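Sample log: DUF1772 domain-containing protein.
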Amino acid sequence: MENGMITHKNRSPLKKILLHISSIYTFFIASWHMGLMISVLLLWYPSWSGLTIDTVKTNFDIPAQTATNLFVIMVPIAITTAFILVIGEWKNILRWPAIVAFIGLTGASIVAKYFLFPINDIIYAGVKDQNELTPLLIKWMALNNWRVFFSALTWVAMMTYYTMKCEMKTA
């Protein structure tokens, strides 16, 4: 232990590589997901107020389905890599940002799976009229704000993880 922190000097090369790969992948997905969520919030929400039955497929369905198809594969892997970080860093202070990253990724996934995907399915199936579409989009945006929060939390946690890791190396 140096400066009250457990160092990684005694870890096997394989464990070090696994932790590096896990942290890199987790941070990559955290950055990508947060970037997408902030873009949705700042750039897409304003245009969705004008979506109609005729324009929803092109401007909501296709982008949402494309993102969903990608992230339902990539985010569970990131949850796994974040969990590996939690286990790998359990005996030192880096466990805390790893735990927060794990919580952020899991929270974003729960919001998507249990709250947003059901709304997506209704919209994808085709809504009858504008009076049905508008409240669904408003509800989707309100719920998605939680996913924006969780994705930003994950990114901040991973940025903190790397900042702390650098501090540990220079201390």
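Observation: The longest helix spans residues 130-170.
Observation: The CA atoms of residues 5 and 166 lie 13 Å apart.
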